[in-house]
Amino acid sequence: MNEKQKAAGYSVFQKTIPAFRAHEVTAQVKALSQKAIELGQPGFSLKYGETSVCRVNVNGETLNMEMVPVTLIGGTPKINGWQFVAKVDHGDAQAGEGNLVFGYNPTLIEKSGRKDLVNWLSECPPNCEHCDVKRNRSTTFLFSDETDPTKLIQLGSSCVKDFTGHPNPAALLHAATLFKELIVELDDPEWGMGSGARAHAMLTFPYVVSLAAAIVRKDGGWIPKNDRMGYPNHGATVVSVYNELTSKKPTISIAPGDEEYAKQVVAWLTDDRFLRIPANVNTHSG
Ligand SMILES: [Zn+2]
Q1: Is the pLDDT of residue 276 over 80?
Q2: Does one domain contain both 52 and 183?
Q3: Residue 153 Cα to ligand 1 middle (Å)
């Protein structure tokens, strides 16, 4: 972390995400970093490690997925010595509704020394300690003192500007909320799949080949698509692989030996001999 990031109170976040999400996460972090710079804060840093295939549980299915470790340095903006802790959307207490708490900062909550703070946030009344006027507010914000994190202040949204002296507190709070949402998303393995997405859409190539190897083992050999007369073969291997990939519940279990075969197949397919010669290279030796 560089000096400016340190001074801004940024934290280091280390997560492991599916490799196919890296592109999207990079774009998101770039956008947030740009926003931070516009608001007078230092930019963020993002670093990826080496990918590896891990067993991950998605939608109740265990898959072999390519995962990549990611290190993010960033944080929520500070406002004149105050740090954003949480945004609270107040429910109707008389109707027995609780509050919705957004973008809360677990580090600052811990540093506050108040063990009940998360519970308190979910049911606190919409008070403002700045103007002390009791009224029906729908949203309040909680900040903690940069030098003394046990010092907390709850503010009504209309008083945030007055209290902080920042010309655009709404933008700061928006950036803070987006950052906290990103951290939550990075922890969620099913994020980014969309409601209609299926787990098999994220399968790695070695996994598909391992599955084919398991089916070949179970069937006692590769069953071609068509028989000698050209009619479709019942139980053709490619059909079995497809059915297995698209079925809701897996029926084939992959053994270590299948994975070993798959490794050999993938090694063969990615061998130097098969590297494509770029079209613009003149292979005519003349
Ligand atoms: Zn107020």
Answers
A1: no
A2: yes
A3: 11
How far does residue 162's CA lie from ligand 1's centre (Å)? 9
Residue 161 CA to ligand 1 center (angstroms) comes to: 10
Regarding whether 61 and 112 lie in a shared domain, the answer is no
CB 104 within 8 A of CB 86: yes
Q: Tokens 């994190």 map to which residue?
A: 149
Most confident of 12-26, 119-133, 155-169: 119-133
Please answer whether residues 176 and 189 qualify as being in contact, where contact means their C-beta atoms are separated by less than 8 angstroms. no
In eight-state DSSP terms, residue 94 is: G
For residue 148, which phi and psi values (nearest 5 degrees)? -135, 90
- DSSP letters, 218-247, are HHTS---SB-TTSPBPTT-HHHHHHHHHHS
Give the distance (Å) from ligand 1 centre to CA of residue 88: 14
Mean pLDDT, residues 201-228 taken together = 86
Q: Residue 140 pLDDT > 50, yes or no?
A: yes
User: In the 8-state DSSP scheme, what is residue 138?
Assistant: S
Q: What pLDDT sits at residue 120?
A: 93
The tokens for 172 are 């700061």
Q: How many domains does the chain have?
A: 3
- Residues listed for the chain: 286
- Residue 31 tokens, joined: 């956008």
Domain enclosing residue 186, as ranges: 1-75+166-194
